[in-house]
Amino acid sequence: MTRLLALRPTAALVFFYCFMICTATHAQVTEQEREDRAEMANIDRDHDKVFKIHPLHYGEVFVSYEKVRAPGISNEFGLSYFYKLHMKGDGWSTNIKDVMGIGIRMSQRYYTSKKKPAPFGFFHGPMFSYRFIVFERNVFDLPDVPPNDPDFRYVGRLYQNVIDLSYHLGYQFRLGRHFTTELSGGLGGRVKIANATNGGDLIRENIIGHVVHSDEGAVFTVGPSPQLNFSIGYSF
Hints:
The protein is of the alpha+beta class. The chain has helices spanning 2-40, 200-206, and strands at residues 49-53, 60-70, 73-88, 94-111, 121-135, 159-175, 179-195, 210-214, 218-224, 227-235.
């Protein structure tokens, strides 16, 4: 009994401290929720989404969607369809080849203007993209000869996987009530993995980029990825 009486003040003290900690934590969470709600209230809900087309990308149909997710911060997601692509030519020239391909782009943007709410004004941020390309048959222009001909060589269809990681700077303008236009540029790095059965040497000679590794059927290259982007959009 004496021990129980001695433990009661200690238990009450522990309970009191636990209660105070829980109360303080709840108050902190509530205050954070208020701040978050206040920040989100600053977003212009009439223009926090933008659907865009990018008309100046040669050999590519490119559309994107941008959504403001916090004051001054947005995310953009883009889809592309490729029908033309450049390969190495003679000297500084390139050869244009017919292809079929798809691509995705994902970026995060940080808007810095204090006078214009996102998604308008100056922005900067990283971008990641991936594309998968299937080239036309006989992309290397090998002679069309029968299998028993001494010059016959079988090379499979060329496939290419490309990963880009870059950082972009730009400005998005508001035109009238809902229309937008954007001009931006970026610089980063590009990794390519190109493969075609028995085509390793031909890939090395034709794929743009610095060859890091190659074998009989595949080539791994790296290179810079300068980018210029222009878009026309509709905000809502």
